[in-house]
């Protein structure tokens, strides 16, 4: 859908109330159980594609599938029910960072019992406190779904000392993030109460870029929702403002030349593999006036993924003001997940 006018005062007020409620009303009551361990195994498909360039991209992102352990423990006082952890399939050389963490938000019925339901893996934005990611996770929980917020490399539990990763490691860490999200699906499928047949994927901004590539590795996720992201990363780095401009400056200061930047970005370029996404189960949400991810970059991803106008939702506003449409976006996403999973 494409809106021609900006949000009304009523919409802004409603969105503000929603944000306040979502930040305070969904505090979880963790069960009193000890740490539980589950056995999981990678179901990553072989990195093959008829297009030679796509196949080369997949080879650079894939890893050798293996069995891996998943642990689940309560954290008293946390807003989520359990902390789920598993080893990253890609090593960064940092043992803390290489242990992936998921915040598990569990849906419950009127009696407080945990419901068996579909799941959504949420990939957060670049903000250190992950407010938008947590808003989505809590909202999916309130909608009756299991939701899992993954901590990307060097975020939250994966960076206890608040260290900043070196700028020249950025691309290694994005590759790790792509792998962690895909392995995250198999970790979630090993947990109780989750309908493993129906695990969806949602990501915003930084998380949206990770989602676009991770979901294209194979067809592991039931449905995919990409928010405020796009393709042609090198072009975006030339035009993008705010966070993108800051990243560009930091890379320049780290001695990354323009030629090197172009080469590194190509290794994680979503349009190389976007044709592997199912256009009937993928949705892209974009802001017409986005100054961080220009709309041209959103169109590049939509074209590569063969998305129709119905699956490329364009809204007025910029990278930040588009949050006023959160209730509308959430309703559309939850409706699609329920329709595909047959959930009530």
Please state the structural category. alpha/beta
List unreliable stretches of 5+ residues.
1-33
Q: What proportion of the residues form beta strands (DSSP E)?
A: 15-25%
For the terminal residues, how far apart are their CA atoms? Answer: 24 Å
Largest sheet: 10 strands, mixed
Task: Tell me about this structure.
The protein is α/β, with parallel strands linked by helices and 344 residues long. It has helices at 9-24, 52-61, 131-142, 170-189, 206-214, 233-239, 243-253, 258-267, 295-304, 326-341, and strands at residues 36-41, 67-74, 82-87, 99-105, 117-123, 146-150, 194-204, 224-227, 282-287, 312-315. The chain has a ten-stranded mixed beta sheet with strand order 1-2-3-4-6-5-7-8-9-10, sandwiched between helices. It is globular, with a radius of gyration of 19 Å. The model is unreliable at 1-33 (pLDDT under 50).
């Amino acid at each position: 859908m494409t809106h021609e006018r900006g949000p009304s005062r009523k919409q802004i007020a409603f969105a503000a109330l929603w944000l306040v409620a979502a930040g305070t009303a969904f505090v979880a009551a963790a069960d009193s159980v000890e740490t539980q361990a589950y056995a999981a195994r990678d179901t990553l498909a072989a990195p093959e594609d008829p297009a030679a360039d796509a196949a080369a991209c997949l080879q650079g992102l894939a890893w050798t599938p293996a069995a891996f352990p998943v642990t689940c423990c309560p954290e008293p006082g946390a807003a989520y029910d359990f902390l789920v952890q598993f080893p990253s399939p890609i090593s960064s050389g940092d043992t803390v960072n290489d242990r992936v963490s998921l915040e598990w938000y569990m849906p419950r019925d009127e009696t407080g019992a945990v419901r068996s339901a579909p799941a959504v893996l949420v990939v957060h934005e670049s903000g250190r406190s992950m407010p938008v990611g947590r808003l989505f996770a809590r909202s999916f929980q309130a909608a009756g779904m299991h939701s899992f917020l993954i901590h990307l490399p060097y975020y939250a539990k994966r960076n206890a000392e608040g260290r900043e990763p070196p700028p020249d490691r950025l691309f290694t860490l994005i590759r790790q993030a792509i792998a962690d999200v895909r392995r995250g699906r198999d970790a979630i499928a090993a947990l109780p109460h989750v309908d493993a047949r129906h695990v969806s994927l949602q990501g915003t901004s930084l998380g949206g870029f990770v989602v676009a590539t991770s979901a294209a590795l194979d067809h592991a996720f039931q449905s995919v929702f990409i928010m405020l992201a796009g393709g042609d990363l090198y072009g975006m780095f030339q035009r993008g403002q705010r966070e993108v401009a800051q990243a560009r400056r930091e890379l320049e200061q780290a001695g990354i030349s323009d030629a090197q930047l172009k080469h590194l970005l190509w290794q994680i370029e979503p349009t190389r593999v976007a044709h592997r996404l199912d256009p009937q189960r993928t949705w892209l949400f974009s802001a017409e006036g986005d100054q961080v991810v220009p709309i041209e970059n959103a169109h590049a991803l939509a074209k590569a993924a063969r998305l129709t106008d119905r699956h490329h939702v364009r809204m007025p506003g910029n990278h930040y003001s588009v949050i006023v449409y959160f209730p509308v976006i959430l309703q559309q996403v939850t409706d699609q997940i329920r329709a595909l999973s047959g959930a009530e």
